[in-house]
Specification:
The protein is globular and about 50 Å long. It is an all-alpha fold and 121 residues long. It has 6 helices and no strands. It has one domain.
């Protein structure tokens, strides 16, 4: 798992801010990898929360890049890790499953293809 924030040498306020930014990034990753709804499968269209998360993570120039940089991570490396096929370590599986990664990868491909009916939302 990516260590989203190492705060051992930071002052208390900096550590709290870093944990908040890491939580925002983690939440977006979880939203992007959540299980597909019946509507998504039937309509082949991403639900709004997942689409926004994918857009936020993978569109250059979003706050995602700034947040990652502020906590000392390279946003490109996070993106590569999410889209990669490297096996998850045992500790990672408690928070992030192979199925979650596959869901994110499928949504990313839909995002690149222009998510059917995207303008409807």
């Amino acid at each position: 798992m990516i260590d989203l924030v190492s705060t051992s040498t930071a002052d208390a306020q900096t550590a709290r801010c870093a944990r908040l930014l890491a939580a925002v990034i983690s939440n977006a990753i979880m939203d992007a990898g959540q299980s597909f709804t019946h509507h998504e499968r039937k309509q082949r269209r991403m639900q709004t929360t997942a689409r926004h998360a994918i857009q936020w993570i993978f569109t250059p120039g979003t706050a995602f890049e700034a947040y990652a940089n502020l906590i000392g991570l390279n946003p490109s490396h996070i993106r590569e890790a999410l889209l990669g096929n490297a096996p998850l370590k045992p500790g990672d599986k408690a928070l992030w499953s192979e199925q979650s990664r596959r869901n994110l990868q499928i949504r990313y491909r839909l995002f690149l293809a222009g998510d059917k009916n995207e303008e409807a939302n």
